[in-house]
Amino acid sequence: MTTSLNDPFWQVKNLDEMTEAEWELLCDGCGKCCLVKLEDEDTGEIYHTNVVCKLLDLEACECNNYQHRQYFVDDCLKLIPSNIGELTWLPNSCAYRVIARGEELPPWHHLVTGCREDVHNWGMSVRGWVSSESDVSDRHMQDRIIQWVD
Ligand code: SF4
Ligand code: SF4
To answer: pLDDT at position 5, please?
Structure first.
């Protein structure tokens, strides 16, 4: 394959070659990584719920305090090139997983369409079908488990 300087960065760079700005730009803004997950203590299996982290803006699907998120939510994992392969609870559609698999970004990704609303327009984000964990008690969390589809 020949590449030119004008090729989009996500087509010519591996995850660990991206600048911090490129890395952040790659995120599709789906908010699915912010779903509350439950772990079966016996099997280690992870279950997703239709409840999201208290810091997620339900409409924008963006973290309300991205810069200081780990101060407020200590189990919010920072995604880095070396952990993408291990985080199997991320959706298959997560742009970091897509690039790690060597695939093209999906047609609704904002880097493809030029519009950050398209992830929502295509129904690929959490907008419209989740509640905030601030509004769901721990004892009801099991009732919110969903079948993971992406
Ligand atoms: S799942 Fe991946 S692409 Fe979607 S918001 Fe989270 S980090 Fe970004
Ligand atoms: S702290 Fe922010 S980025 Fe982390 S899970 Fe919560 S909403 Fe998502």
So the answer is: 59
Q: Is the pTM of this model over 0.90?
A: yes
Could you tell me which residues come within 8 angstroms of residue 80 by beta carbon, excluding any fewer than 6 positions away? none
Q: Where are the domains of the chain?
A: 9-144
Q: pLDDT by residue (tens digit) across 43-67?
A: 999 999 999 999 999 999 999 999 9
Please check whether residue 43 is in contact with residue 28, taking contact to mean a CB–CB distance below 8 angstroms. Answer: no
d(CA 1, CA 93): 25
Reduce the DSSP state of residue 51 to 3 states and report it: strand
Closest ligand 2 atom to residue 66 Cα is 2
Inter-residue contact 49 to 126 (CB < 8 Å):
no
Q: What tokens were used for 49?
A: 């719920």
Q: Is 73 in the pocket of ligand 1 (CB under 6 A)?
A: no
